[in-house]
Each structure stands twice: as structure tokens, then as C-alpha cells.
Amino acid sequence: MTEKDNFSYLLFSLFFLLLSSALVDQFLAHSLIGQSLVIALTVISMSIGVWSLRSSRYAFNTALGLVVATIVISAIVILLDKAELEFIHLLLMLYFFIITLRLASQQVLFAGKVTRNSIVGSICIFLLLGLIWVMLYILLTEFTPNAFAGLEAGSWQQNFPDFIYFSFVTLTTLGFGDLLPISPLARFLVYIEAIVGVFYMAIVVSSLVSAGLANAQEKNS
User: Considering the chain, what is the average pLDDT of its residues?
Assistant: First the structure.
């Protein structure tokens, strides 16, 4: 794997996480098996995503360490019923997505060339932005359960698919209104995500266009 094709693996891992979470919510919602599957699926998707970071030794070692730590904590939560460790699990997932976003942004937005891999990488960045806000919403509800209206009370595993839906609806500024932020912090996170989504589209499009024009000028000169 090189920096010419690494984002294909990352895109697959993110799509796998989104699709599998929806399937669990469709067929195994509100069951212990479904909650355990959500934890397992997040670990699997993170493990697949690690392979996309192998172009950088530092990134690979950091991501691998986060995945191993997440696996250990997940096993303790599931097998020993240590629910108090779930907060650490959520923080590790958030940190993993942030690191992956930073590395992907460096390779895509500052590469200076438009390639198939950079286009796939720009899609990955958009998905990572949505997932980062998913984790922020989940962490917020862990402290303020009434932060959102239209959300059933339950564990973070049960709320995970709902917040995936809500996050990407907000990121794309669709705003269907079936899930509403109530608390001030929830509203803050929501409108910041909407702003980030709008500006990301403007920035990534302008970056790809300018890089494409630069490439064309180099070929003509």
C-alpha cells in the first residue's frame, strides 16, 4: 500500500461502519447482542482503517495503539460489565477519528495534485467529520441525557446509529427536524457542524479545482 491507493481502504472501513450500524439498528435494536455488535463493528472498522495509514510509520503505530487499547477496554466492558469504562472507549474512538482526519487532510488538501486517491480521500474527510461529531454528540448525551429531543433513552450503542443519521443530516444542512438539539451545548455543536460542512465543501472544491488547473498548466508548459 502506498499514498496512491490508501484512501480506498479507509473509505471501505468508514462505509462498513455506517452500513453495519444501520443494519444492527434495523434488525437488532435494543438488544444486548446488538449493543455488543456495535462495539465490535467499531473496532473492526478502526482496524481496517489502520491499514490505510501504513504509508506513515508514526500514524500506523499511533492508530494501532488506539485500536489495541479500544479492544482491551471493549472486552472489559462486555465480559466484565464495566460500564464506567465506556467513556474511555468513546474518547479513544474520538481521538482515532481526529488523528485520521488530520493525516487525511494533510495528504489530500496539501498534496498539490488531483488524483483518484485524493478525490477518494476528500470523501473520507467528509465522512470523518461526520463521525467526529457523532462522538461529540454521544459524549454530550452521556453527561446531559436530555440534550436532544426525539431521542430514546438508552446506551450509547443504541444511540450510535441515530446520531450517525443526525450528524450527516446536519453536516449537509438538510435538517429534517425529527431529532432536535435542546441544550445550549447541543445547539452549539449542531450549528458549528453545519458551518464546517458548508465551508468544507467550498474549501475542498476550490482546492481540487486550483490543483487541477495547476496540473493542467504544468502539462501544457
Answer: 82
